[in-house]
Amino acid sequence: MATRCITVSLVLVLMSLLCMHMDAGRHLLDTPASPPPPLTLPQIPSLPKPTLPPLPAIPSLPTTPLPTLPPLPSLPNPTLPTMPTLPKVALPPLPTTIPTFPTIPTTPFLSPPPSTTTSP
User: Fold this and answer.
1) To 10 degrees, the CA torsion angle through 111, 114, 117, 120?
2) For every one of its 120 residues, what pLDDT tens digit does the chain have, with 9 covering 90 and above?
3) pTM (2 decimals)?
């Protein structure tokens, strides 16, 4: 009997808690949502434009004629020593036939065992 009483009381407590949460949710849904206030950016004051004085004129320099240079002396071209000629080396002619090499006899890797049966 005591367990039945505890079970019924727990069910009632749970139902009351659930109803309270549902009411709170309904109340929140009933209130109209107000839009957030628009964001306003502060105005940046415009800075005064500086006025610069005019640049002074560059005075032109007097041009003087360039002096003429004397011609360069001409030097004779140097002559290089001559290289001695080397004798040409003649190679022997290549053979026209290819030599044949002896072949190595091949043996089977695993030879069959000798026959143990005798023929009649």
Assistant:
1) 110
2) 778 888 988 888 888 776 665 555 556 666 666 777 888 888 888 888 888 888 888 777 777 788 888 888 887 877 878 888 888 888 888 777 777 777 777 766 666 677 776 655
3) 0.20
